[in-house]
Amino acid sequence: MRRMVPCPNCGRLTEFAPANRWRPFCSERCKTSDLGAWASDRYAIPGAPQDDTSSDQDEVGAGEPVRRPRPA
Prior knowledge:
Layout: E1 4-6, E2 13-15, H1 28-39, H2 56-60
């Protein structure tokens, strides 16, 4: 018995087996389209945005300027 699943991108039924090199997608086009959606941030997990507070200022101390040596 062949296991058929809907393509996550277009919904067309496709075989979920080693013979389908693009599984769970139906084609290279759908697989590439899905990858592009992830790369362009079209998919996102809902939640509150988090602040990225890591910077040079955090390592030295709040409000203190970062001192760098002058080039010779």
